[in-house]
Amino acid sequence: MTDGGIDTRPSRPATLHDVAREAGVSLATASRSINGSTRKVNDEFRERVLQAAARLDYSPNVPAQAMARGTTTTVALLVADIADPYFSSIAAGVVAEADAARLIVTMTATDRDAERELEFVRALRGQRPRVMILAGSRPTADSAESALGHELRAYERAGGVVVLIGRNELGLRTVLVDNAGGAVALARALTGIGYRRFGVLTGSEGLLAEVDRLDGFRAGLEAGGGSLRDDDVVRTAFTRDGGYDGMRRLLSRGLDGIELVFAASDIMAVGALSAIRDAGLTPGADVAVAGFDDIPTARDVTPPLTTVRVPLEALGRRALRLALGNSDAAARAVATEVVLRESTPART
Amino acid sequence: MTDGGIDTRPSRPATLHDVAREAGVSLATASRSINGSTRKVNDEFRERVLQAAARLDYSPNVPAQAMARGTTTTVALLVADIADPYFSSIAAGVVAEADAARLIVTMTATDRDAERELEFVRALRGQRPRVMILAGSRPTADSAESALGHELRAYERAGGVVVLIGRNELGLRTVLVDNAGGAVALARALTGIGYRRFGVLTGSEGLLAEVDRLDGFRAGLEAGGGSLRDDDVVRTAFTRDGGYDGMRRLLSRGLDGIELVFAASDIMAVGALSAIRDAGLTPGADVAVAGFDDIPTARDVTPPLTTVRVPLEALGRRALRLALGNSDAAARAVATEVVLRESTPART
DNA sequence: TACAACTCAGGCAGCGCTTTCCCACAGGTC
DNA sequence: GACCTGTGGGAAAGCGCTGCCTGAGTTGTA
């Protein structure tokens, strides 16, 4: 870490006070020059201040500014799992939008643990973020629920704004995905290309997304003339391995006429594809598969996966816009779009 | 947003002062009770303070604490692209480790733009984070380089610590990946199962990772008796589409005896697989493909991709540990591991 | 009884910044 | 020339918290 002749002793960072002294002006003038207030500052003074700041490598102390101004420039984002493409895409959207608003994003993972989520909300509240965004659907009712609600309400009462993504509770601002509509459209598209007998892999936690997708799919089948028997609905974990296991269960029990398996998320569908292949069958040809979300991988598996595109990054952007008071972001659920690919070849 | 009978007027959040008054103790005692200092506090007093805090929904103002204490609890993380599994995995590691150290992570994306990176470093410096982590290799030399170095050095001089992931410049702390070693091992493994004639898809930006992987692969081939002609090395974008294009170039030019194409990253390899398939060939059988990184998708494509595993999350954890002064994290480059899968069937 | 030695609550001075408020001065008007 | 108005720099009061310092009260010892 040595640096030649340059002085590397840890010295305290330059303060505005230092800059003011160096420029030979008052603290107030220095402040006004650097961050530009409503007040005007003589050009020559400003120039002097700016040069002094550059000379001292001055960088305004954000916490101090926050305190003096009584407001921060922070957005807190709470997701279930950062490495999950679903959430990292949302995060990318939030960050991009925050960027445009010159806000900075702090990010934390709950690991899908309601206890941790509560704990983090509590801790994050202390940061006095302007906005708190919670992504990731959770079971509709649980013990930590009321505590979470209490915490979030206290935060809002103190002037914060919270936005929920993909869940609708507690009377808070929400960005919803049109899961039901997408599932309806998917079912109709599939019946439209000749499928009649279906199976479903869905989660077992009662998440909002799970329920809406299954209900929507059912409704769409009804409209399109497809059929789904209750015991062809397999409940399993909402993960790749869950999809694999669920599909295996279906296969070992005997497909019994099922032509297409709808997995309630793409990662489950990916697991299902592997299970089909491991059983010696060819996905698409022997049994078709469709998913939901359109994660990037969906294009890259073989056969490419039919799915419903959820504009994840847009979801993140919209959440922040909504928080910042952009009312058109408050519109109805984010639209989804059916994407037919080779995992569901047309049946003629 | 209405709330029944409860008062929802935005009121200023409770301060420690309020809590102290409510509990009938001094500010100092309230502070000591809530955050626990070296000083002891009478149990009864503490209890009273804690209850008052709960009653008022008190949440300590972190920026104010930061200022009073003269130190924050923030880690700033700068990555190229949050939605990229490579970076989101690293981020997950950083966040997990930060969590353990009760630090919170702020995250920003540079979009692979050196200008933006510089701008962000400047802005982040103002947050006075304890640690700054920059992930994502960049061309070794460019115009913004010296400015970036200046900024980072100023930050370190003021007591911060910066860690670079996957790049080694400016004499800063670094977490390095053993790209060369992994590539050597991969080449030997591939020659070991019978491959002799190779092609390579690599990036065109001169990134450290690109260079090391290619050099290592060459060295491994030499040792293992494989051959790689200079004009069988295709330089293209370090992305999925770059991989697709590069492979197509190779195919349309004629494979000319190439048995296996090594793509310098998994996403490029995924693109290459698609290109091969689109050309009517079967990846694995007609031409083998290997990648690098072992992103989750690598298992899910068909055929599953042979690659070199880079423990991305561990990389993130290690970066933070290193920053926090855990010296064993300063050890040598993070080891990588060859993972042979069906995209490179043994040639007998 | 007197005094030393502790213990621990409370007072208060900052931390680095923004933002009134005050005031000096320049320019304009009658 | 007296007065008003507008402009813009500087002094100073906080923002919410921590941590040093003071000093009151308690216990122990001679």
From TrEMBL, chains A, B:
SMART domains, alphabetized: HTH_LACI
Keyword Nucleus: no
Stored PROSITE patterns: HTH_LACI_2 (PS50932)
Pfam families: LacI, Peripla_BP_3
HTH lacI-type domain residues: 14-69
Record SUPFAM superfamilies: lambda repressor-like DNA-binding domains, Periplasmic binding protein-like I
Entry annotated with the keyword DNA-binding: yes
A single MF term (Gene Ontology): DNA binding
CDD domains cross-referenced by the UniProt entry: HTH_LacI (cd01392), PBP1_LacI_sugar_binding-like (cd06267)
Alphabetical UniProt keywords: DNA-binding, Transcription, Transcription regulation
Record InterPro entries: HTH_LacI, LacI/GalR-like_sensor, Lambda_DNA-bd_dom_sf, Peripla_BP_I
The protein's name: LacI family DNA-binding transcriptional regulator
Source organism: Agromyces humatus
